[in-house]
Amino acid sequence: MKMEKHKVLFVCHGNICRSPMAEYILKDMVEKAGMADEFEIASAATSTEEIGNDLYPPVRRILSRKGVRYGSRMARQITRRDYEYYDFIIAMDENNLRNLKRLLGENTDNKISLMMSYAGKRRDVADPWYTGDFEKTYNDIVEGCERFLREIQP
Fold first, then answer.
1. Residue-level pLDDT at 134
2. DSSP-derived pairing of the beta strands 88-91 and 112-114
3. Residues facing residue 11 across a β-bridge
4. Active-site annotation holds for 145
5. Which DSSP symbol is given to 71?
């Protein structure tokens, strides 16, 4: 019997910093835990500003420094089809929650959540585009991903 995968989509404003960082961090975590076959993990943007662009260079640097593998990719915008396809759509901040509602309509299937809510915190993941603090963003995402995995694993 084929097991259903957990389909996870991380979302931020441009899909070049926080959401792809979360995508690669979670992929790394599930791979190290021997659960990679149980997950499909991706990321997307709420805006069109960075469509087609690869990871922001400081994101590549911190992932490399932390030993997290990443690949070449292109930023893309979330679609209504993504809402239908993914089980979990995890936004990096409140602005993206609002934008998701505008783009996708009501969250009738309760698929959309805020990243830091998994860590029991009602706050945004620090945005390194404005803070320049990629370490803080990395730590927020690691904490959120670890707690997310604990919550969904039996």
1. 97
2. parallel
3. 44, 91
4. no
5. -
Contact 115, 90 (CB under 8 A): yes
Which one-letter amino acid corresponds to residue 112?
I
For position 2, what pLDDT does the model report?
Answer: 63
For residue 121, which amino acid is it?
K
Which pTM value belongs to this model?
0.96
- Assess whether 127 carries a catalytic annotation: yes
Among 69, 62, 55, 58, residue whose Cα is nearest residue 24? 69
Over 90: is that where the pLDDT of 106 sits? Answer: no
Q: What is the DSSP letter of 54?
A: -
- What does the alpha-carbon distance between residue 46 and residue 90 come to, in Å, rounded to a whole number? 12
Question: Annotated catalytic residue: which of 82, 124, 127, 140?
Answer: 127
Catalytic site residue 133? no
In sequence order, what are the beta bridge partners of 129? Answer: none
Q: Which of 17, 18, 28, 124 is catalytic?
A: 18
Nearest CA to 107 out of 115, 98, 116 is that of: 98
